[in-house]
């Protein structure tokens, strides 16, 4: 039996968001061989990540905090995530964005970044707003978070209560789509993907694309490779370790290619190039700033792998 974790992050168990999630659950359970596990985040106790990095250092990549997301992998919420074949996150819009409860859940999924156990897991979201709305902004933000976990984002409902009946139908259809994907995940095993595939997929098919904001961030808004933090770090000699400098040089070369492809309108190819540049940049900064003084271990193989290390 395939299982989808249906997560409600609203404080109201019977409100608009909860009704939309129930509609998604109906769609999920219309697929034979699939069931939903309901999780209301307000029923569990866990706080923010403490940046202890124990989950990075351990071979099991589990959280050591004594709460429902920790206990060395024995926390109830952590276990529900581990055994799920898919996830749908239903969240009301607060302050034009996702809720603190939704953000907290994603933040505490930090161990999965290192284990890659959620890599390729089917995922979906529901963002429900009233009043001013901003449900599309909230949906894009959740999509970005799910990209960070390398889930396979199948879609999201951005709902305003003014069109609630339509949103209920959309949620049910999304649930059915997610259910079918979870069935494949359970029957055939998780179809994990590499960063190039993930970057390209989100660029072409999701509600948030990594390519433009990533380039904007690295170039301080100029969108020019020559003014990027990658180039200036290399020119200024900020990185001192030989291996870090070698990775940084490769990052600069590939990032120049990324920006060129982006400005040429080759967005899918730019995304794939960016995935490679990002991996080299990550390895460079890890070697220089994190490996010895902060975390004390080599970069986990599942995190931003590059071909020469595989």
In which range does the helix fraction lie? 40-55%
Oligomeric category:
single chain
Q: Show unreliable segments.
A: none
**Main sheet: which strands, in order across?**
2-1-3-4-5
Question: How big a fraction of the residues is strand?
Answer: 5-15%
Distance between the termini: 33 Å
Number of helices: 12
CATH first level of the largest domain: Alpha Beta
- Whole-number total of structural domains: 2
**Coarse morphology:** globular
The overall strand count is 5
Q: Look at the structure and name the CATH superfamily of the largest domain.
A: Flavodoxin domain
Q: SSE order, as H and E?
A: EHEHHEHHEHEHHHHHH
Output the CATH topology of the largest domain: Rossmann fold
Mean pLDDT: 96
CATH architecture of the largest domain: 3-Layer(aba) Sandwich
Cα gyration radius (Å): 20 Å
Strand count, sense and barrel status of the largest sheet are: 5 strands, parallel
Alpha-beta classification: alpha/beta
């Amino acid at each position: 039996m395939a299982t989808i974790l249906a997560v409600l992050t609203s404080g109201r168990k019977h409100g608009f968001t909860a009704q939309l999630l129930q509609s998604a659950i109906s769609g999920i359970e219309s697929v034979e061989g699939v069931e939903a596990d309901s999780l209301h985040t307000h029923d569990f106790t866990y706080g923010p990540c403490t940046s202890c990095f124990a989950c990075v250092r351990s071979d099991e990549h589990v959280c050591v905090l004594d709460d429902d997301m920790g206990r060395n992998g024995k926390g109830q919420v952590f276990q529900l995530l581990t055994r799920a074949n898919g996830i749908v996150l239903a969240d009301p819009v607060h302050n034009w964005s996702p809720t603190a409860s939704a953000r907290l859940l994603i933040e505490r999924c930090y161990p999965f970044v290192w284990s890659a156990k959620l890599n390729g897991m089917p995922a979906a979201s529901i963002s429900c707003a009233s009043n001013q709305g901003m449900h599309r902004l909230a949906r894009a933000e959740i999509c970005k978070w799910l990209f960070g976990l390398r889930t396979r984002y199948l879609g999201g409902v951005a709902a305003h209560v003014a069109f609630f009946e339509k949103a209920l139908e959309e949620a049910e259809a999304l649930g059915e789509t997610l259910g079918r994907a979870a069935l494949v995940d359970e029957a055939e095993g998780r179809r994990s993907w590499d960063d190039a595939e993930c970057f390209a997929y989100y660029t072409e098919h999701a509600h948030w694309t990594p390519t433009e904001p990533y380039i904007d961030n690295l170039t301080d808004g100029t969108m020019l490779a020559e003014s990027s933090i990658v180039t200036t770090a290399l020119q200024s000699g900020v990185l001192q370790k030989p291996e870090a400098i070698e990775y940084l040089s490769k990052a600069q070369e590939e990032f120049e290619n990324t920006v060129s492809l982006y400005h040429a309108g080759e967005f899918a190819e730019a995304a794939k190039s960016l995935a490679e540049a990002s991996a080299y940049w990550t390895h460079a900064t890890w070697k220089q700033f994190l490996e010895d003084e902060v975390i004390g271990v080599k970069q986990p193989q599942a995190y931003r792998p590059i071909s020469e290390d595989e």
